[in-house]
Amino acid sequence: MQRKSRLYFITTGILFLTFIVFTILVKTVDVKPIGPRGSEVGFAAINRFFFQHLGTSRFWYVVTSWLGFVAMAVIFAFAILGLVQFIRRRTLQKVDERILLLGGFYFVILIVYAIFEFLVINYRPVILTKELEASYPSSHTMLIICVMVTAMMQLHYYLKEKRGWLTAGDAAAVLVIVLTVVGRLLSGVHWFTDIFASMILSSAFIALYVAALKHIEEKREEKDC
């Protein structure tokens, strides 16, 4: 394994370990029943501070929910790109490796998204339906960060000669990420620690994607030498 990809794999491990340690802390530090129906959450003082000062917002909940559809549209767009390459080149082996890797990455992210919809670390600070819902981490935030960051990476590869499109694409992706992180917190449907944990976890998955991509590129360079 070459030095560059190895560094990214090490970074990936550190980030995943950080997420695990933070999750343990959420389950053990300052755990108090401050949620609906006496549900408990860690880092209670910090979470209560943000929730009491920011409150809830139906507007931001709706906005961030729609941004989730933006992320799904991006996934669909790259799926179409992969399908077009497959049809034109008539074999899966000739589809760009970065697109195949991206497909696998999206599949993993969606599986993790589904898992955290049922795995309860703590519950939401508000009841959206009739029952308490899993809240940690914010899988919605994780999905959007992962999709938009990797989308920027693809744009920089496929549109590297088109500066105007790159600037517009980067600006749009960053805007979606910022609106999601800030908006999800302002909406009041997640605790502060839910959002923070999702940022750590999404960083770990992005580092993993970059590490795998660098490893593939290094293997290709070795073969060409």
Q: How does this model look, in words?
A:
- The protein is an all-alpha fold.
- It has one domain.
- 75% of the residues lie in helices and 0% in strands.
- The longest helix has 33 residues.
Briefly say what this structure is:
By secondary structure, the protein is mainly alpha-helical.
Identify low-pLDDT runs. Answer: none
Count of individual beta strands: 0
- Helix amount, in percent? over 70%
Q: Element order, helices and strands?
A: HHHHHHH
Features of the shown structure:
225 residues; mainly alpha
How are the SSEs placed, and which strands pair?
Layout lengths: L2 H26 L15 H11 L3 H32 L7 H22 L20 H20 L4 H25 L4 H33 L1
Helix pairs in contact: 1-7, 3-4, 3-5, 3-6, 4-5, 4-7, 5-6, 5-7
